[in-house]
Write a structure and sequence with these properties.
The protein is of the alpha/beta class and 273 residues long. The protein folds into two domains: 32 residues; 236 residues, TIM Barrel. The chain contains ten helices and nine strands. An eight-stranded parallel β-barrel has the order 1-2-4-5-6-7-8-9, surrounded by six helices. Helix 2 links the parallel strand 1 and strand 2. Helix 1 packs antiparallel against helix 10. It is globular, with a radius of gyration of 22 Å. The structure holds SN-glycerol-3-phosphate and calcium ion.
C-alpha cells in the first residue's frame, strides 16, 4: 500500500536531480566560458604594466592581458597607466611630455622600466590575447599601425587583439581605419540609454564598472549582440554574482585566484567537468 507514494517520491527525486544537474551543467558551461583578463598584467602581484606583471599574468592562467598605452613626446607608444609618472616612478611630469629616452631612465616601483608597446607584444609573443587600453589623445592611429604590422609581418592574428578605451571617439577611429580590429567601449556608471554607448561605436565588447552592474544593463548590451566585460573584480563572491548575471569577461588583478574560484565552484557543482 505504501509502494505507490514511494514510487512517486522516487520519480520526483529523479526529476529533481535531473533538473539540478541540468542547471549545474549550464552553470558550469557559463563559468568556463568567462574570459579572465589580467589587469595591467597580474598587478596584484607585480608592478603594474611591466614585463614582470605580464609574465605573472600568463603564469596565472589569464586568457588575456590588459595594459594601458600613451604616445610619448618622441612618438613611440609606451605602456603605462597614469597621465603622470609621479605615483609609479622616481620621476615627475606627464608621460606625453617626455621622450622615450627620458621615460626609459625612470624606475617603476623600485625595480622595473616602462616598456614600449612593441616590447610588450614581442614579450607576450601570442601566448595570450592582448587588451590594449588607449589613454591620452591621438594614440589610435599608431596603435592600429602597430597591430597591422604584427598581423602582416609577425604572424599575429586580428583575433589576438582587443582595443579598448573610455574615449569612444578613438574607438570610432580604430574601426574607421581597420574594421577587422575588435574594440571595447569602457564606461563608468550606467548611461540613461544603457548599451547604446557601445552600439554607437560598433563595439564588440562593453566594459562596465563592477560597481554599476544591473541585470537590465547586462541584458540590454547582450540584446545588441555585444559582449560584457567587467572591471576590476578581485573577490570571488563578486565574480560569482557577476557571472550569474551572464557577464562574459572579468578584468582582475589576480587572474589565478579568480580562475581557481571558478574551478572550485565547478568541481562542487559537477565533479566530472
Ligand atoms: O580596461 C578596464 C580598466 O583597466 C579601466 O580602468 O583605470 O584600470 O585603466 P583603469
Ligand atoms: Ca586599464
Amino acid at each position: 500500500m505504501s509502494y505507490t507514494p514511494k514510487k512517486k517520491g522516487g520519480a520526483m527525486k529523479i526529476i529533481k536531480v535531473a533538473i539540478l544537474g541540468g542547471v549545474l551543467f549550464l552553470s558550469c558551461i557559463s563559468l568556463h566560458s568567462v574570459t579572465i583578463i589580467g589587469h595591467r598584467g597580474a598587478s596584484g602581484y607585480e608592478p603594474e604594466n611591466t614585463l614582470s606583471s605580464f609574465a605573472r599574468a600568463i603564469e596565472c592562467g589569464a586568457d588575456m592581458v590588459e595594459f594601458d598605452v600613451w604616445k610619448c613626446l618622441s612618438g613611440e607608444i609606451v605602456v603605462f597607466h597614469d597621465m603622470r609618472v609621479d605615483r609609479l616612478t622616481d620621476g615627475t611630469g606627464c608621460v606625453e611630455l617626455k621622450t622615450l629616452d627620458e621615460l626609459k631612465e625612470l624606475v617603476v616601483l623600485g625595480s622595473e622600466t616602462i616598456p614600449t608597446l612593441i616590447e610588450v607584444l614581442d614579450f607576450i609573443d601570442r601566448r595570450v590575447k592582448v587588451y590594449i587600453e588607449l589613454k591620452g589623445l591621438n594614440v589610435a592611429e599608431a596603435v592600429v599601425q602597430t597591430i597591422e604590422h604584427y598581423v602582416t609581418k609577425k604572424q599575429w592574428q586580428y583575433d589576438d587583439f582587443l582595443v579598448a578605451s573610455f574615449d569612444h571617439t578613438q574607438l570610432q577611429e580604430v574601426k574607421m581605419r581597420n574594421n577587422s580590429i575588435a574594440v571595447a567601449a569602457i564606461v563608468c556608471g550606467i548611461p540613461v540609454k544603457l548599451g547604446s554607448f557601445a552600439s554607437d561605436v560598433n563595439a564588440n565588447i562593453a566594459v562596465l564598472d563592477a560597481e554599476c552592474i544591473t541585470q537590465r544593463f547586462v541584458d540590454d548590451i547582450h540584446s545588441r549582440g555585444i559582449l560584457v566585460y567587467v572591471y576590476t573584480v578581485n573577490n570571488a563572491d563578486d565574480a560569482a554574482r557577476l557571472v550569474a548575471c551572464g557577464i562574459d569577461g572579468i578584468v582582475t588583478d589576480y587572474p589565478d585566484y579568480i580562475r581557481i574560484s571558478f574551478s572550485s565552484k565547478s568541481d562542487l557543482f559537477l565533479s566530472s567537468s
